[in-house]
Model the fold of this input.
Amino acid sequence: MRGARHFSELTVWQLADELRVETLKLTSRPAFARNLKAQTQAEDAVNSICRNIAEGFGCETHGQFAWFLRISRRSLNELQDAFPGAEQKGYVTSHDRAPVRALTRRLYPALNRFIAYLDSTPDYRPNRGSTRPTASQHPSKSARTRPRQSPRTDTRKPLAPNIVSSVAPTNVSGIAPTSKNFRTDCDA
Done:
C-alpha cells in the first residue's frame, strides 16, 4: 500500500471536506446567515479542520504533521460547540444536524488514530537516507554555504565610465599609487 501523494487522498481530509459541505449547507440558510458572527465562527472552524490537515501534509516530520492534526481536532471541537448554540437559537433543528453529527463521529476517531500512528512511527523520508535533513537538503542552511552571486541585479550600463573618481585607487598593498605611476582614462 503506497502512501498518499496529495492531502486530498487522506481519509481524514475527505471526511473533513464532507463535513465542510454539510456545514456550509446549514450556515447558508437565511436564519443562520442573519447571525453573521455565528455563521463566520462555524465556517471558520470547519475550514480550519481541512486547512490544517492540508498544511500538515506538507510538513517534513510526522511530529509536525501530528501537531497540525491536533489543531484540526481542536477546530472540530469548536464546530461541535457551535451547532448546539445554533439549535438553541432556532437556526437549525436536531434533524438538520444529523449529517454533521454523523461525520463528526467518524472524523474525531479518524484524527485520533492518525495522530497516534504518526506519533508511533519514525519519519519516512524516501530517497533521503536519514530522518534529519542535511545542509544540502535544507535550503535555508545551504544558502549560507553557496558562493555569492554578483551583487548587481540591474542590467543598466554605468552612468559615466570615463569619469575618474576623486579618490585615488589603491594597489594590492593598500597604498595609493604615486602620481608618477598613476594613469587615468583621461591620460590615454
The radius of gyration is 31 Å.
